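Today's session is about reading a structure prediction critically. Students often jump straight to the picture, but the first step is always the sequence itself: look for stretches that repeat, for charged clusters, for runs of hydrophobic residues. Only then move on to the predicted structure, which in these notes is written as discrete structure tokens rather than atom positions. Here is the chain we will use throughout the hour.
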Amino acid sequence: MKFFQSIISLLGLLGLFFAELLGSIGSAVGSSSVTPPTNPEEIVVNPLARAVDEEEARELFENANVDGSSNPYGSLEVSDQNVEESLLEVGSVLSVAPTDFLPEGALLKIISISDQAGDTTLIVTGPATLTDIVEDSGGYQLPTPELVSFDLIPEPGVSITEPTVDYFSDGEVTATYQKGFELDENVDGVDIHVAGNIGIEAALGYEIKKFKLESFDVTATPFIESEFRIGTGQEVTVGWNRTLAEVEATHLFTVGHIPVRLITTGTLDLNLSAGAAGEFSYSPKVEVSHKAGLSYSDGSFTGINEPDLDVDGLGDINLKASAEAKAEIVPNLTSKFYGLVGIYAEVAGWVKLDATLTPLTVKCTASAGVTPEVGLEASVDLLGIDVSWEHAFLEEEFELFKLDDLCADKLPDPGVDPTPDLAGNGVVLQEGNATGSPEQWGFLDGLVENKPAWVLSTGNINDAVGLPGHFASTNLGNPGSDALSELSGGLTWDAASYQVTVVPTGTTLFIEYAFASEEYPEYVNSNYNDVMAIFVNGQNCAVVPETDEPISVNTVNHLTNTEYYIDNQFGAVGYNTAFDGLTKDLRCAVPVTPGVPVDVHIAIADTGDAVYDSAIALVEGGIYSE
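Below is the predicted structure for this chain, in token form.
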């Protein structure tokens, strides 16, 4: 055995000598400005470097480590026959194919060989690097990657399909998806449909001069197309995270004449959160990619973190109630180039909907972006010197797309504009609009003494008229108002509002109104504190006179601020309403600038529950200026 090893070593040295000699001759006759060759055929390789297939790997390494494991690094006991058949000697470099007992394969070199008693040989191995394979690359080399395996192992409920589209970047087909996936599920009342495709690209480049690694680059790039459909027909709150599938991929690169592998493993995850006050649906589509890796040049490392996103259908929403939703498709992957390089990369490609439909606020915004997180490491074995490197890109959210004002064309026509009846002297009222349900408003007599009024109610307006013995209480199932919830200190329901732009000719804007409620008197000083507001340029002026307390059941009643209260339990003279209590005719006064438009929001809502109606009465001609 030692005789054969000596012959092989001699041949190796002769090959190395002639290779260096030819290299020197080429350098001597060439001009200093000649570009270094990049043809792989001109690469100078280690003649003792070779590939090891699965069968040979099993004979050499399975359970061969002296600790009883199949770890190919360290001290191994191998039969003399296998050593001779594999032509192993000191300086051999082996690229070992992945096996069931060695799933990541190995790249190793033989440090020493010694005879053992019996028919075994003790072999000591250690990690190898690119300079153990290639002695001189003849310039920068960028071997073509070959995807030799790609597996998408689904979790229960997820279907794996064949991809039907290509991956586009900058308008051109740049890659092919390897697998498709699909999931349909209902989570706590939210219908979820996710379908898409996934692929992974990889790249490896290097330059070696006289056994020294001059530059090195390695990246892994997952790219994913995903279509979401999220919807519900009820009030819900959901937070949901799950793994769709496990991902396993192997890219092969030929370095010199030796195959080396970048192996990627991890998961494809889906994160979802949704909250809705009623019916909504959302159907966006995203394409996300994430190039992550490291680069070494001129003696220093740099990290690579390049997420990208494209989105379609960002404004594809159907709303009948306030809703919030966020969906994320997340490849969470680790790519390893043996023990030399580790790339730990996660990126969330997300879409988000924020829709508020209340009497005071109509706002719908959709956005999309990425949230990448990357960790990188290079071991001391990569450069072959006592230098290692670690770097992390911390998780950070990047909003790349945003659409506002998505609700304007999607709201139902309220079918009413009370502006002509409310306009008094010294004002021009523009763009008046009521929101809520049509049964919540109308013109009535009986809520303001001897004056007709336009009335907003938290229930059916027809219940507001009549004798106090009639019970005015309707749960409409409509959303409340965040602004009124803040004023009342409790959750609100069945909100209704009137919004108008007022152009005054005077210096003071006046608004006449009255507040009435079925909560009187039983629920005074309780959590059932129905509330109203008149916002003039965002400031509530519907307050108890000479205070800043908003008008509500708890602030004006038979116990508090009684001078402004009318007890209607047995029918007050001059009134014709079913509400058991109401305020006197009140007036809101706000300084304004003549000719400058003023924004007015008038709103009311149930607080604490959605029953026991309340109403606000706006006196006919009661918006005026002086």
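Discussion point for the tutorial: The longest helix spans residues 2-29.
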